[in-house]
Amino acid sequence: MIRRYTRPQMGRIWEPENLFAKWLEVETVACEAMAEEGLIPKESLETIQKKACFSVDRILEIEEETKHDVIAFLTNVAEYVGPDSRFIHMGLTSSDILDTSFAMLLKEAMILIIEGAKGLMEAIKDRAFEHKYTVMIGRSHGIHAEPITFGFKLAVWYGEMKRNLRRLEAAREVISYGKLSGAVGTFANVPPSIEAYVCRKLGLKPAEISTQILQRDRHAEYFTALAILAGTMEKIAIEIRHLQRTEVLEAEEAFEKGQKGSSAMPHKKNPVGSENIAGLARLVRSNAIAAMENMALWHERDISHSSVERVIGPDSTILVDFMLHRLTGIIKGLVVYHGRMTENLNKLKGLIFSQQLLLRLSQLGMTRQAAYDIVQRNAFKVWETGKDFKSHLLEDQELMGYLSEKDLDEIFGIDYHLKYVDEIFNRVFA
User: What's the CA gap between 111 and 337, in Å, rounded?
Assistant: First the structure.
């Protein structure tokens, strides 16, 4: 089902046609660099540039016999180029092509992911300012705590996404390295200048040192950045799922015309988009673990990482791209029930102001423990009787020896909790 919703831009990156095109680009630019240094005839380069081509079907056909994808690719290219194909792949090893092209693909994918992350941030920012002063209850341990605003909640998400953006940009940089250093990385059969030329031409940097492969800490960082981003999206999705619960119902995913919630219960409107995101985050996270497992390879290279990356490369980037655009749509269309937020805010009949009362009594000279005991015993009466908190406080003679009714009115003011909202927003969105 995910493939059905994959954006064409991201899906095309991982199609065989684009993969082999990247291989051919690396090989052709390597020939160009070698011709510049007089290692191959310029006439041969011209032939290669003119005739080099491939057929996906033919490569797969040859691979059935060779059991080696790069050899199958080179064999097919040679069928187009002719005798001058002997200069293609000269002094190189398969990983020179595979790792350099993989870096190009991951970089290309990350550009789209960064674009998607910025789109999500913009959607969150718009809704945050829209609901900057939409008051709701804040919760800790799932229990009503003190007032916040819905905009504040969104601003927290935006702040986390800013950190994700920095991680994504760092991952794009760390993955943008290629290598053409030969079978064990010593440049024995191809000089470092060829690597430098090819990487520069392809928009990469040459690795300062490599074995037969680029070291996989780079890839581990890349996929971990995706996993952390997925974790943030899961966190947001879980909060939306909580807010949509019938008992809470402070916000919910938009329900489109013709949409159905349940095959059995026509009344249902389920947070399916957020649930999708929460589930897919598990896959992206597990792929990051696989990328870390790829770091430890035998000696100068084994092939155990290769099969893993053929899965996690397309899967993680496609999934994250899908999640970003799904969550952006959810945020943009999120239905916010201000009235329900107010209703839930008042559900505890004033208990949410208990800390303000505690602080005021302490400021008036009462010990913190004595103040805590007075506030708590009146708070518990609310749970027992269902009467509002202020009524019990007015009946407490010990308490009212310190406070007037006017003091209580001030203590029970919402504005007390909103006085730094502007400053917080300036810190987050500046």
Answer: 36
